[in-house]
Amino acid sequence: MEQLDLTPWRCPEPLIRLKLWLRQARPGQSLLILLADPGSRQDIPAYLRRQGHSVQSLEESPTRLSLRLEVAMRPPSS
């Protein structure tokens, strides 16, 4: 599974980088997402679910969140 480490950046940079990754993603593709920014840890899972993607929290601590993303079979148009 591919990994996208967004821990070095603060909002809105993680979301921007994730959106760029999603542009080239294939339906059904999986991605491990690592987040540290408190705003991103809250906003990114909500954004992905609104877009119809499957999101599973793998590990959560006060300073870090690991998510497993599965790209929706029919990605919504942006």
UniProtKB/TrEMBL annotation:
<feature type="domain" description="UPF0033">
    <location>
        <begin position="3"/>
        <end position="69"/>
    </location>
</feature>
<comment type="similarity">
    <text>Belongs to the sulfur carrier protein TusA family.</text>
</comment>
<dbReference type="GO" id="GO:0016740">
    <property type="term" value="F:transferase activity"/>
</dbReference>
<protein>
    <submittedName>
        <fullName>Sulfurtransferase TusA family protein</fullName>
    </submittedName>
</protein>
<keyword id="KW-0808">Transferase</keyword>
<dbReference type="InterPro" id="IPR036868">
    <property type="entry name" value="TusA-like_sf"/>
</dbReference>
<dbReference type="Pfam" id="PF01206">
    <property type="entry name" value="TusA"/>
</dbReference>
<dbReference type="InterPro" id="IPR001455">
    <property type="entry name" value="TusA-like"/>
</dbReference>
